[in-house]
Design goal:
By secondary structure, this protein is mainly α. It is built from ten helices and no strands. Helix 7 packs antiparallel against helix 10. It is elongated, with a radius of gyration of 38 Å.
Length: 259
């Protein structure tokens, strides 16, 4: 009985130490987590990342449900906050997460939304518009990364006719598309795989090349301020002098020329 009591006291002390250690680390752990807003084109990818980190830093730790609920309220904002703002009690923690998962983490919905985003992307008309091409590439990467997070099969049986690849090919500039078609011919000839990752690498390289070419052309272009303007020439209208006629010099007239 005495040994049992001692073990119970020791266990209670260990539990108190753990709670104290966790209480001290709450501020430190909280610094590693960004707030989730539930907004933007990449909200599903952000939710996946946020949910994974929240699970590691909060849910898997020995915090009380009350502390976990406080963390949840602290690290959401805007649309995500509005979804679960009426869940005030620690007992409602599970329900709050189910609401967030239903809205931002349901695989079928995420896949459908990512496909819609790929279709709705605006076509870039010129490879010279580096900013627009970078924006398109960023959107492609975001949606493809989101689909990968939810273990969606991007490749399929026939990647060349994959709806994902076709959607992306239709959005890039015409000259980039023709170069990509040439690249696919090369890949087939060398029996290499045509993949979405390959397309993204190819498009990324094209943008990098164009950006570098523009930079070099800009550096080689003469700077207007480095050249001094040529000094305008003053024309002296009276530069030539008229020689005086001497007294003994006879002036030839039309009458003198007659026979």
């Amino acid at each position: 009985t005495i040994h049992g009591l001692e073990a119970s006291v020791k266990q209670e002390e260990e539990t108190k130490k753990k709670k104290l250690a966790l209480a001290k680390s709450e501020t430190l752990e909280s610094m590693k987590l960004e707030k989730f807003s539930g907004q933007g084109d990449n909200k599903y990818l952000k939710y996946y990342v946020w949910n994974t980190k929240f699970s590691e830093l909060v849910m898997k730790k020995e915090y009380s449900d009350n502390v976990k609920h406080k963390f949840l309220k602290l690290y959401k904002e805007k649309d995500a906050h509005d979804l679960v703002k009426n869940y005030h009690h620690s007992q409602e923690l599970k329900t709050a997460f189910e609401i967030l998962d239903e809205h931002y983490g349901k695989p079928s919905m995420v896949i459908r939304e990512s496909l819609r985003n790929l279709r709705m992307m605006e076509t870039v008309k010129s490879i010279n518009d580096v900013k627009a091409n970078r924006a398109l590439l960023s959107k492609i990467n975001t949606n493809i990364s989101t689909l990968k997070c939810y273990n969606f099969d991007l490749e399929g049986d026939d990647i060349e006719n994959s709806s994902f690849l076709i959607e992306m090919e239709e959005k890039i500039p015409h000259i980039a598309y023709t170069k990509w078609e040439e690249e696919k011919i090369r890949l087939k000839a060398e029996e290499e795989e045509i993949s979405i990752e390959g397309f993204i690498r190819f498009y990324t390289n094209l943008i990098n090349i164009e950006e570098k070419a523009q930079y070099i052309r800009k550096q080689a272009r003469p700077n207007e301020n480095s050249y001094s303007k040529p000094t305008p020439r003053k024309i002296n209208m009276y530069h030539s002098t008229i020689k005086p006629v001497h007294a003994n010099q006879k002036r030839t007239t039309y009458r003198d020329q007659q026979p």
